[in-house]
Amino acid sequence: MIGLENVIEFVSKEWRTLTQAPVISLMLIAITATITWKVLVWRYKGIIESLETRLKTEKHGREEEARIAAQRMELLKAQASSLKVDSVVSVKSFTAFDDSNSKDLRIY
Question: Is the dihedral of CA 70, 75, 77, 80 positive or negative?
């Protein structure tokens, strides 16, 4: 990688050429800066798109998990109400059975 010391050394060696042709020097600096800027924008756009895609995927996955959890809750509620009805029927049957048998066991 090019260090700051190398750039300073290059500029000091080529200072005379740079001052002799300022327009060309400025154009080269502008072209280099533009190319660098475009490369950085391209690179970071790719990173941003990748992160956005990952966020959308994770969001979709969480929505899917929430939907599945809601379906499970509905199923459990249905099963619980079914058990509750069955237990009420069982208690009523037991009570009816107990009442019918208690009449036979009464002592007069």
Answer: negative
